[in-house]
Amino acid sequence: MKTSGMFRNCLAVLATLLLPAATLAAEDGKLKVGFMLPYSGTYASLGHAITNGFKQHVDELGGKMGGRTVEYVSIDDESEPAKATENANKLIKRDKVDVIIGTVHSGVALAMTRVARETNTLLINPNAGADEITGALCAPNIFRVSFSAWQPSYAMGNVMLERKHKNVVTLTWKYSFGEQSVAAFKEAFEKGGGKVVKEMTLPFPNTEFQPYLTEIAALKPDAVFVFFSGAGAVKFVKDYVGAGLKTNIPLYGPGFLTDGTLEAMGDAGNGLLTTLHYADGLDNAKDKSFRNRYAITHKMQPDVFAVQGYDAAQLLAAGVEAVKGDIARRAELVKAMEEAKIASPRGNFSLSKAHNPIQDIYLRKVENRENKVIGIVSKALADPARGCKM
Ligand code: BEZ
């Protein structure tokens, strides 16, 4: 009896020793999520909203994915591209995260994407829109749940044509996302016969807008197209109104201008038309429950960035659940993520072959501090994924 009991124990120990490390981790280990997001600077509110949204979905799952308790480490990336490679490496090599969630600023995201590709780290991008991320830099381990720069701004080009604008001035921060947003807008607008008469840029995150507003007043275009977001967007819209331009020269842009910024903007935002993959007043049950829970927890309404954080967690859960927590089964995990149908507060979406959402783009109008949905301007819009070889 005694000998057979010992034999059984030995077999059990041997079996444990022979199990692959990843299987052990799947049974006992926590799932380590590394947030690399801006928690300071002009995009700080965006980083916090993404974190809140992500955690909201994890809480709905009882704090677990695929049977593993989710734990978090975070780095404030300060929207600083020069620190991005080092910060991403800290999460991967020092903190040994299983997945990185990040980030907001495209310059930072491009560097992170390169690190993730080199180290084969799973990366879910919850915001940054640089086209290359799901274009030339696309890879099996790189996913985006937000948008490409091309999507909302191309849609806006068509909206401004329909509104009979002919000559337009553009203004943005001079970095990849701003410049690609203007290029996408211009692509649609000039294809339809419009003309971009002047492209103006200022360094990120400068908010000294006065010289540009003076030039716009002198040029007298039919309309202005801009990309700004976060605290910079609040200052820009207030300055545009303060300069007396809003009544004569209508202002448009992708919806980052007015998402998460309307409380701080006050009445200055009233009437602005923007295009985005989310809006206030969408008639779907998922959005209602998402917003109710968010409002109760955070005493404020969610914005598009919170939605993207929430959907990053939904996408990760789709993969981790499929492999029952054993994320070393990478090919199966990736396949499940690629095939996921995400029931998002924005409306249902799936991913393109390049891992970017195929989604509706809404036209929204600011009324009573909300981005009221007016309609869908581009149904199931897919990014062209230029340069993606996957
Ligand atoms: C970007 O840099 O990709 C970005 C930043 C804020 C809002 C939207 C996009």
- Shape assignment: globular
Q: Determine the N-to-C terminus distance.
A: 59 Å
**Nearest-angstrom radius of gyration?**
23 Å
Indicate the low-confidence ranges by residue numbers: 1-27
CATH architecture descriptor text of the largest domain = 3-Layer(aba) Sandwich
| SS elements, strand count | 15
The CATH class of the largest domain turns out to be Alpha Beta
How many distinct folded domains? 2
Strand content: 15-25%
Percent helix, as a range, is 40-55%
Structural class: alpha/beta
Largest sheet: 9 strands, mixed
Mean pLDDT: 94
> What hetero molecules are bound to the protein chains?
benzoic acid
Secondary-structure element sequence? HHEHEEHEHEEHEHEHEHEHEHHHEEEE
- CATH-defined fold name of the largest domain: Rossmann fold
Number of helices: 13
Secondary-structure map with pairings?
Layout lengths: L1 H17 L2 H8 L2 E7 L6 H17 L3 E2 L2 E9 L7 H11 L4 E3 L4 H14 L2 E4 L16 E3 L5 H13 L4 E7 L2 H16 L3 E8 L7 H10 L3 E5 L2 H13 L8 E4 L7 H4 L7 E4 L8 H14 L5 H19 L7 H10 L2 E3 L2 E5 L5 E11 L2 E12 L9
Parallel strand pairs: 1-3, 1-4, 4-5, 5-6, 7-8, 7-9, 9-10, 10-11
Antiparallel strand pairs: 2-3, 11-14, 12-13, 13-14, 14-15
Helix pairs in contact: 3-12, 4-5, 6-7, 12-13
The chain binds benzoic acid.
Q: What descriptive keywords fit this protein?
A:
390 residues; alpha/beta; Rossmann fold; 2 domains; 9-stranded mixed sheet; 6-stranded mixed sheet; 13 helices; 15 strands; 43% helix; globular; disordered N terminus; binds benzoic acid
